[in-house]
């Protein structure tokens, strides 16, 4: 959806139109302007041309049933993936992509292998949530949470992410506390977010307890090493008073041994730090940790008083799980 075009089209209209139109898109969740019964016919026709509401999405549902994936085709033909997670307690989380591909090339991540094709516009992020909102409307329920954890690095597309979040807050009524951003550690983004005065949840993809291993797995660590990243997180916590979640993927034989856990515990001994252990969704490169290693790893952290949560993967059968998001969109050859 091109919201900039929408506002341009409404510029000569009476003021109350903006509210009316927003109510139709985000409240009634219309998928076509013909459904906006309170708008004049001529305006509907112009809007159909300037800001079509159709979202070209193909729906894949997982046999495990908790995860569904949509493959969305953008106006320029590129494709992105977005995921809906249904939780047992009735919440529905949409996992939003922020870029087509990702330039950061983490070794364990399928999206990283694609490279960056382009940033998404804020309207394209909102569309991912709207796509599932329209679907859930038919089931009489709604999207309750949004995580910016799909394809791409949110803080390399900062302005569009924040703009999208404002719409999710104000128009789709998804509170900031229900929204999380995950970053691989782009420090300027962490600093900017600290100044936003938004009650968002921040997650840091850590995945290694020292610079040597982290730089091997995540090339971004060479520019933003732990010695700079963790002080930036501390400054964020001082400013916002909010807890920060450190995501740690458990990869067999790579970062899941007792010495890694002990090293991680030393880094994480701070108030408002939480560790989230994530099961690795296998790609060509690595395997998931053995369950005995996961258990030992968790115990070592807990013995040191670290708050640890665990995320199990879902949607592996449709490649909807974290880090498995990759589309066939290819870089255009010049
Ligand atoms: N670029 C951001 C957000 C998108 S990645 C970031 O890196 O934080 C979302 C999450 O999925 C990150 O924590 C990422 O490290 C994790 N991830 C990547 N590959 C994965 C895999 N194969 N299995 C499970 N999680 C993975
Ligand atoms: Fe990019 Fe995140 Fe994947 Fe790393 S893990 S390549 S930052 S999407």
Write the layout of secondary structure elements.
Blueprint: H1 3-10, H2 16-27, H3 41-50, E1 57-61, E2 67-73, E3 79-86, E4 92-95, E5 99-101, H4 110-114, E6 116-119, H5 122-137, E7 145-148, H6 158-170, E8 179-183, H7 187-194, E9 201-205, H8 211-217, H9 220-223, H10 226-240, E10 244-250, H11 258-268, E11 273-279, H12 291-303, E12 307-311
Parallel strand pairs: 4-7, 7-8, 8-9, 9-10, 10-11, 11-12
Antiparallel strand pairs: 1-2, 2-3, 3-4, 5-6
The structure holds S-adenosyl-L-homocysteine and iron/sulfur cluster.
Iron/sulfur cluster binds at residues 102, 104-106, 109, 111-112, 152-153, 184, 205.
Strand content: 15-25%
Which small-molecule ligands are present, each listed once? S-adenosyl-L-homocysteine, iron/sulfur cluster
- CATH fold node name of the largest domain: TIM Barrel
Radius of gyration from CA coordinates: 21 Å
Uncertain segments: none
Q: Look at the helices and sheets and give the structural class.
A: alpha/beta
- Major pleated sheet: 10 strands, mixed
Rough shape? Answer: elongated
Number of helices: 12
The N- to C-terminal Cα distance equals 28 Å
Please state the second-level CATH architecture of the largest domain: Alpha-Beta Barrel
Sheet with the most strands: spatial strand order: 1-2-3-4-7-8-9-10-11-12
CATH superfamily label of the largest domain: Aldolase class I
Can you write the helix and strand succession as a string? HHHEEEEEHEHEHEHEHHHEHEHE
In percent, how helical is the residue content?
A: 25-40%
Number of strands: 12
Mean pLDDT: 92
Question: What is the CATH first-level class name of the largest domain?
Answer: Alpha Beta
Overall domain count: 2
């Amino acid at each position: 959806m091109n919201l900039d075009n929408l506002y341009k089209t409404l510029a000569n209209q009476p003021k109350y139109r903006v509210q009316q139109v927003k109510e139709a898109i985000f409240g009634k969740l219309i998928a076509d302007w013909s459904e906006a019964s309170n708008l004049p016919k001529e305006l509907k026709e112009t809007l159909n041309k300037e800001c079509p509401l159709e979202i070209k999405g193909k729906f894949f549902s997982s046999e495990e049933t908790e995860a569904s994936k949509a493959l969305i085709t953008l106006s320029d033909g590129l494709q992105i993936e977005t995921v809906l997670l249904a939780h047992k307690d009735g919440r529905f989380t949409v996992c939003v992509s922020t870029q087509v591909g990702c330039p950061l090339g983490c070794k364990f991540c399928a999206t990283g292998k694609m490279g960056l094709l382009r940033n998404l516009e804020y309207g394209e992020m909102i569309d991912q949530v709207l796509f599932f909102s329209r679907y859930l409307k038919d089931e009489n329920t709604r999207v309750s949470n949004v995580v910016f954890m799909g394809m791409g690095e949110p803080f390399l597309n900062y302005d569009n992410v924040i703009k999208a979040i404002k719409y999710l807050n104000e128009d789709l009524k998804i509170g900031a506390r229900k929204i999380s951003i995950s970053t691989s550690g782009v420090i300027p983004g962490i600093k900017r977010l600290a100044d936003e005065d938004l009650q968002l949840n921040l997650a840091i993809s850590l995945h290694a307890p020292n610079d040597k291993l982290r730089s091997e797995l995540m090339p971004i660590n060479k520019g933003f090493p732990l010695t700079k990243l963790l002080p930036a997180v501390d400054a964020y916590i001082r400013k916002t008073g909010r807890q920060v979640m450190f995501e740690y993927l458990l990869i067999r034989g790579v970062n899941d041994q007792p010495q890694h856990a002990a090293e991680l515990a030393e880094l994480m001994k701070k108030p408002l730090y939480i560790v989230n252990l994530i099961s690795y969704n296998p790609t060509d490169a690595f395997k998931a940790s053995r369950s005995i290693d996961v258990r030992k790893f968790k115990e070592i952290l807990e013995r040191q008083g670290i708050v640890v949560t665990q995320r199990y993967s879902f949607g592996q059968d449709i490649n909807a799980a974290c880090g498995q998001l990759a589309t066939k969109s290819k870089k255009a050859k010049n």
